[in-house]
User: Fold these one by one.
Assistant:
Number 1:
Amino acid sequence: MKLEFQSAPRPADLDLSQWMDWTWQLRASLKTKADFASYFELSSEETHAFEKGSEIFNVRATPYYASLASQKAAQDPIRRILMPHEKELFDPSQSQLDPLGERKASNHPTSRIVHRYSDRVLFLITDICSVYCRYCTRKHFTGSDQAFVKKNEYEDALAYIKKTTGIREVILSGGDPLTVSDGQLERVLHDLRSIDHVEIIRIGSRMPVVAPMRMTDDLVRIIKKHKPVFLMTHFNHPRELTQEAVEALDRVVDNGIPVMNQMVLLNGVNNHAAIVQALSRRLLFLRVKPYYMFQCDPSIGTDYLRTTIEDSLEIQKELWGHLSGLAMPNLSVDIPNGGGKVYYSPQFETEVSAQGRKFTGWDGVQAEYINPDPTSIIKPLDYELYLDEWNHLRASKNQLNRE
Ligand code: SF4
C-alpha cells in the first residue's frame, strides 16, 4: 500500500499565501475560550477547563494545527493534545511541576541552562510555543511570559557553555526555539558554533508539526550553515504528517540536516501498536528516524493522558520483530525527580548462567548465547589514546565546582 499524505483543510475564504505564512499562523493562533469556541464544539469538560483560566496551563494552537483536529469529537487524538480538559485540575496519582528535576540547583547553573548529563546542556532560548501541549513536561517554564532570552541571561548561558569545556552538545529547547525570528536563531547558532568544544547542536521543535510552513528556505539555509545541527521533531500521531509537513521535512533533509523524532505515548492519542507503527513507518519513509517513544512524565495535570508502563511495554513488544529496527523508537522513561532516563526493551532472556544466556525470541525461537572464554578478553591496543577525552567529558558537569 502506497503511503499517502493529505493537505490540512485550509478555510475556503483564506488565501494560500496567508495560510502558508508561519508568522500569520502564530499571530492568528487560537488562545481564548472564544477563539476555540468559534472553531470547535466545546464539551462541558473543555468549557470548564477554559473557565478555570489561570489554574490551567496556557492554551494555544495555530489555525493549521487546529484544522487537523475534529471539530466535534472531544475524544479525537489531536484534540486531546491541544485542548484543555477539566481533568487537568485533578491529579490523583502523581503530579510534579518539575518531573525532570531541571530546577534543582545542581542541574540549573544559569537561568536558561539545564545541565543534567555530562556532555550536553539544554539552552532554553524562549518559553513561547505555538501550541501548548497538554502533556508538556516543562510547565515550570513553558508559557511563563519570559519570551526570548534576555541579554544578561544570554551572556550568562554562553559564558557557562564556554567555561565548561566538557560540553559537546547544546540542545536548543524551550518553549519552542523555532518560534523565534530567523535573526535571533542565527545569532544563537553563530555564537554556539564559535565555541570550539561544542560539536553538536540540536534543535527540539514542534513547529514542523504545528506550523510546518516555518521550515522556509531561509531557515533551512541558516541551520545548514551552522552544521552539524540535528532537528528533533515531535510528531505524536500519523495524522500530523500532512502534505505540508512532508514538504517541510523534504526541504530540511534534502539540505543534509539530520532529523529525528521524539514521540510521547499518550492515553487516547497514540497508545496502540497500529498507531505507533503507522507513525514510525511514515516518518522513516520521509527520512526521519523515530528516535524516542517517551513514557509521558507525571507533569502536573497529565494523569488522564498518561499510560501505564505495562501498556507501553506491551506496545513495544507487539512492534518488536514486525517493525524494522530503523523504524523502531526507543521506549524511554524519565525517572521522576530528575533521576535520568531508563531505556526499556522487551525481556527475551529466560536463563542466565556463568557460561551464557538463554533466550526465547520474539517469534518463539529458543537458543543460547554462549560466552567465549573470559580469559581471552583483552582491551583494544590503543584505548589509552582516547582516555583523556573520555575522562574530560565524564567530569564536565562538575568542572566548575572543582575550579
Ligand atoms: S511544544 Fe514542547 S515545550 Fe511547548 S508545550 Fe508542547 S511539549 Fe511543551
Number 2:
Amino acid sequence: MTILVLAAHPDDEVIGVGGTIAKLSKKEDIYVIIFTFGSTFPYSEDKYRIAEKRIKESFYAAKILGIKDIYFIGADFKMNRIHKDKFLINRIQKVIKDLNPRVLFYHSLTDGHPDHRAVHRFAKRLKGDFERYTFEVTSPFDLISSRPKLYVDITNVFHIKMKAIEYFISQKQITWFFRYYIPFKARIAGKIIGTKYAEVFIKDESRFWS
Ligand SMILES: [Zn+2]
C-alpha cells in the first residue's frame, strides 16, 4: 500500500503524521510532497541558505521515519492561490497517478497557518481513488471535532518522531513548540484511546473545498 502526505513546509509532515509514518513505513511505501522550502522563516538569514538547510533537514528526518522519497515543489509565493494553479494541480495529479496511493494525508482547514489551509484547498482539487485524512499542526481542534476520526497509537514509535523533529534545528526559535506542544497533544490523543501517545486525523469526507 502507498501513502502520500501533502505538507506546506518542511517539518509539517513530521509534526502532523511523523508517528504514523514511523509506525507504517516498514510495511508501506510512504511518500511526501512538500510545497515550500520554508525559507521565509527566520527572516534574518539568506533565503536560499535556509531553503538548502531545510531540504537537508527534511531528508535526514525522512530517513529516520522511513519515508521513501520527498518531492519538493518550491511553491513559495502566492500559496493562497495554489488551488487555482492548473499546471501545479496537473503536476501533482501525475505524481498521484504514478504512485497510486490508497491514503492521502493533508492539512486541515481549521489549522491556524494560512499556507496549511492553502494546501488543504489544493488537496481538495485532486482526484483519485484514495481515502483522505487531515492533520493539524498549529491547532488542537481535531481533538474536539465531532467528525469521524482516525486515531493511531504511536506509543512505540514516539521517540522516533521526536528524534526526527530534532533534525529541524534551523527551527530552534520555536523549540518550545516542538518540545512541549507535540508531546502534550500526543498524550491527550493517547488518553482518548487508552494508550500513552497517539496521533489523530479527521476523515475528510466533504466534497467541496471552501
Ligand atoms: Zn507549516
